[in-house]
Amino acid sequence: METTAEPSIFDWTRLMIGEEMPYAFLFEVVFRSFVMFIIVLLVLRLIGKRGIKQLSVFELALIISLGSAAGDPMFYYEVGLLPALVVFIVIIFLYKGITYLSEKSERIERFVEGVPVQLIENGKIKFENFNKEAIAHDEFFAQLRLKNVDHLGQVHKAFIETSGELSIFYFDKDQVKWGLPILPDRNECLTDIKNVNPLSEKIACAVCGTLADEIAFASNHCGHCGKSKWISAKNHPRIV
Ligand SMILES: [Zn+2]
After folding, report:
1. For 168-192, what is each residue's pLDDT tens digit?
2. Distance between CA 18 and CA 75 in Å, rounded?
3. What separation in Å is there between the alpha carbon of 223 and the centre of ligand 1?
4. 128 and 220 share a domain?
């Protein structure tokens, strides 16, 4: 009966250099890495990208393609440098081509780059847009806090740009509205406001930031999003 050899786990030679590879291959890795690095640098300069602080989805696709094509030939014995070069040439043509088409057609641009989406209007979360964007409340609130926002009534408008960055437009000091507090230490949510006196306290929906109106106080449901989680609203100006 034929027996297959068990794979040897923690075989140090294989672990360090790889299967049946002489250590001298490391010298080739030095050469391969050198060449690929120079090529990546050239490609990025050719594409005309200045930096990568914030990437659109299109640029992210470009970087991932470049990265994976560049990495393999650096250290895979059986992968040559030329196929990677071909990949790079194709990527450059695609990038330039799609950029050109985006400039010609707004539809293509919207498809490739996406569009800015409004997340806040007059201190209220635009619930319908928010759910479409892959951004969590916690993350969104954290980004607002980084801009010294501690309740939503300080924010006139906020957009998520195609790069993923937030653009925020604030209310003037004297125009700040009552809004949902977003500090991490905000109080526990109320689940029932039927017994709260609407005249003595302003209450905001903890989910969308809409202020509770008479109907909401009576029904205990937010008029905008329908949820019943509430927090005492704030209306002090933003301190910068
Ligand atoms: Zn709501």
Report:
1. 999 999 999 999 999 987 777 888 8
2. 10
3. 7
4. yes
